[in-house]
């Protein structure tokens, strides 16, 4: 019976899938790993490798280069590599702008040996997600061109001011690239302009991609499955260390207030500046919005760059979410579970033998499970134990 079940599990009809759900070294169970363990270890390693006091690029400008070649129609990632990428990128863009509200992002598509800009650098996540959903109708074809894609991104990024952080994230599933010239010159230009290039491979590690990431200070990874792919994307949500040539500069910003249009400004209803040039038929006239403090132009959402005067419009919470990277929560101490009954301070879960490792805050000495530890460092950015302890919280705020 056991042989029949094993044969059914590995029948050829199921096809090849990058599951990696269980890796066993031998029959004695000396090594058992799962995708969850790989992801947790990667997150933990990323926290420990984070340099304390490193200068970060707060105003990020990121171009995502997405491979749409014939190899992206492979079904090792369900339903296909291309559709899986589009779905995970929607979540990534939402989270990217939530954690980096004053940053900008753009999307470039490469197929048939060409590169096409899907969306320009902008800070509106809805615009990018709308363009990604429209890409679900296209059919992957041809070969990608890494050099054409990098050159297209370079044309926009090299025009940015010296205080901006410039990045490129390449998602490639092909094992080849069709380039019109010497790609080494393009890599050298990216390095000269301080553009950080990172790569996520869906098939295997490519030498040219690894070399490009190493030369420009980026990261290179290969996705094992969709969960690991999502984790590889989330690694690029946190701002990387700033380039050595990144200049310090004062950036003029406006903090508009949200209010009804009154007789003091304008009594009529109007379309906001965000949709003034839009061809969307669903746009309606509104009387509310954010008024630019410099030219009194109306915008429906923040953050945004005023279309009339070019002033960057943000709110205080947006700056606060960008500011927390300067004072991250210190990594918790990792200890093995010794069998002593304890409760996670975050979720109030009783820790048992299933929790092989527990985490202790070095300031408040509270105990947390691995899920709460990851949530605190990646989303909450505040230790609940320290926040509920007035003395510990006061010491931490005085130090910052």
Features:
alpha/beta, 3-stranded mixed β-sheet, globular, disordered C terminus, disordered N terminus, single chain, 12 helices, 19% strand, 19 strands, 6-stranded mixed β-sheet, 400 residues
Give a written overview of the molecule.
The chain has 400 residues and is an alpha/beta fold. The protein contains twelve helices and 19 strands. The protein has helices at 2-9, 35-49, 81-99, 125-134, 146-157, 183-192, 207-216, 226-234, 316-323, 370-380, 384-387, 390-399, and strands spanning 23-24, 32-33, 60-67, 104-111, 114-122, 165-172, 195-201, 220-222, 253-254, 257-260, 288-291, 298-299, 304-305, 312-313, 333-336, 342-343, 350-351, 357-360, 367-368. Helix 3 (81-99) packs antiparallel against helix 4 and helix 5 runs parallel beside helix 6. The N and C termini lie far apart (63 Å). The relative contact order is 0.10. Residues 1-33, 261-267 and 396-400 have low confidence and may be disordered.
Secondary-structure blueprint of this entry?
Elements: H1 2-9, E1 23-24, E2 32-33, H2 35-49, E3 60-67, H3 81-99, E4 104-111, E5 114-122, H4 125-134, H5 146-157, E6 165-172, H6 183-192, E7 195-201, H7 207-216, E8 220-222, H8 226-234, E9 253-254, E10 257-260, E11 288-291, E12 298-299, E13 304-305, E14 312-313, H9 316-323, E15 333-336, E16 342-343, E17 350-351, E18 357-360, E19 367-368, H10 370-380, H11 384-387, H12 390-399
Parallel strand pairs: 3-4, 3-6, 6-7, 7-8, 9-14
Antiparallel strand pairs: 1-2, 4-5, 10-11, 11-12, 13-14, 15-18, 16-17, 18-19
Helix pairs in contact: 3-4, 3-8, 5-6
